[in-house]
Amino acid sequence: MSVFALDPAYIGGFGLSEALILIIKVVGAFGLLLVAVMLMIWFERKLVGDMQNRIGPARAGPWGILQTLADGVKLFFKEDLRPAKSDRLVYRLAPYMSLVPAFLVFSVVPVGGNFTSGDGTVTWFGNSTFLQVADPHVGILLVLALSSAAVYGIMLAGWSSGSKYSLLGSVRASAQMISYEAALGLSLAAVLLQAGSLSTHEIVAAQGGWNWNLWVTGLVPALVFVIAATAELNRPPFDLVEAEQELVGGFHTEYSSIRFALFFLAEFMNVITMSAIIVTLFLGGPDGPVLTERASWIWGVVWFFVKLVALLFMFVWFRATLPRLRYDQLMDVGWKFLIPLSLGWLLLLGALRVGRDRGWNTAAVVVVCVAAGAAAGVLLRLAVRSGRRESGELADAEADAGEAVNVGEPEKGS
Amino acid sequence: MSVFSLLVAQNVVFWVIAALMVFAALRLVTTRNVVHAALYLVGVLGGVAALFLLMGAEFVGITQILIYIGAVIILFLFGIMLTRTRIGDEEKTDHRNRLGAILAGLAVAGVTIYTVIAGFGDAELGADTRTTTAEVSDSIFSQYIIPFEAVSVLLLAALIGAIVVARRE
Amino acid sequence: MSDFLRSYLTVGIFALLAVIMVALMLTLASVLRPERPQKQKYISYESGVDPVGEGWSQSRLRYYLFGLLFVMFDVEAVFIFPWATRLETYGVFGLVEMAIFIFILALGLFYAWRKRVLQWV
Predict the structure, then answer these.
(1) Do B62 and A10 make contact, defined as CB atoms within 8 angstroms?
(2) What domains, with CATH codes, occur in chain B?
(3) Which of C7, C17, C43 is the best mutation test for A, with the most CBs of A within 10 A?
(4) Which of A214, B44, B67, B103 is the most exposed place for a label (fewest CB within 10 A)?
């Protein structure tokens, strides 16, 4: 008479060991993420301080590690000011919509396992399972869907604050995020060509043994993905909409105390999970040399964290060194450069893959594709130029240049 | 015994999701704030995605979240924010003729339910109704290839139309 | 079917845990923080001066067009994903089909580019 008796969802049995594995995975991933965010914030402040020749946080705990905790506790004790003109329900809903997708992306990331000489399974309590919280067959599509949902947090936060600066900031931030999501998805397709499946476990398994997608797909999809991810996360150099030097804080201007802390937390959690996704897609996930025979899955975890920390270092390095892009430059890069590049590269990789099966000459395929791409680029340039000439922009530019020459002439004559 | 045999976890989840969707849909048409209506629409479409997942159509379900919730409603919200939406209520989003609306709603619901039951009342689902991405892909690129190319032309036409209309302003 | 539904159930449980954690943090904060209401605190921030006008502003049409372009490319990406996983089976025919699809949608992007929709945000 059990409710679950006839249910196809439980045909495989759902005994104590399965429940235990589920609980361990979920609680473990949760705790891991929270601790990782705390350490990531500290890591960023310390590293940026280092690159700017100063010490960074040094008082709260050894090497200032507890600084994040101290800041969080401080924010708990601040008064929560909800502006009078704000929309009550949506103002409170927005932090949830920012934070929950950030958590959920981590549920499909393979954290460990032996992919060099095995297929990544581990055996706990007699059940063989993967070292990831869940492995739906469309895992990577779930990641994209969740990062699309993250736009809601920002958009609703800005609108519900009732202030025109917040609204403007949030609309610009949302437009930036959706522009780069298109590039994110299209560069992801190159990885799918190699893996043949949408599941994150399959993608990592296809990269076993140094077959990483970083070099197998050429370097271009990885670069496009990293740039698009940086813009998607609103990280420098693409952080115009929430920069510290801006007088108004963008979409989170009217948020204070714990709600502001939640947005902050969501941003850093997004950085960590997006880095984990980049490691999964392009750097082989837990793939790496397995140095011991017993508990070989531990080495997967070790290599995963090494790669993750390397990527986080890269993101912090971007922050410390690169100047900020202006908003129109930012949108130009997203629409006019990244999308055509990833589309063209996808077709090139597709042609190479089909050609490999048919025995076509690789060099001939590459030449044809590059020539087609160049021809398309020339035609596009002509079309854009003729469009500008029609609207008189080019005439204005030439007139300006002519004036400069005319001004120079009397000086030469005399 | 026959009623209890229906009380499997999947049916329970289905009824819960359906109840939430009906609630969201009712609030969608009765709320006075347009942005709240868009958010209730997110709830309804999220329920649709959950139902797809429950049925085993994972590609369609996740695509529903990705496209509808992740792109189309964001487009709606951009459009709403272009016009003057204030925080708070607007009077013109609802009208007084509740009785007529309820009758019309019941009539449409009745016709739809009758059609569905008459058409599919005898159909039985197998134990495994999963549709893999490979099956969806194969059917798109073999049987439905012409509609697939037509989709691209349709999208192009929509974009050009929107740009022409927008630039005229 | 069981593995399939179980993985989504796991994701659902994870999401529920995240929501509960956020709710707990907010509740804890509401217990701990002071509450000294004062009318001036609830005015919208406008660089320190008194706010002018109402709390909205007309976003420009350009953002709506970016949203539309994004819908187009999102739908395109959704069609590209299953095609990419099965390209080996489809061979040259599949490659040509998708090339036509991508070309038509790229035409849309280039039209927008030429009509200066993508300019001067």
Answers:
(1) no
(2) 4-166 (1.20.120.1200)
(3) C7
(4) B103
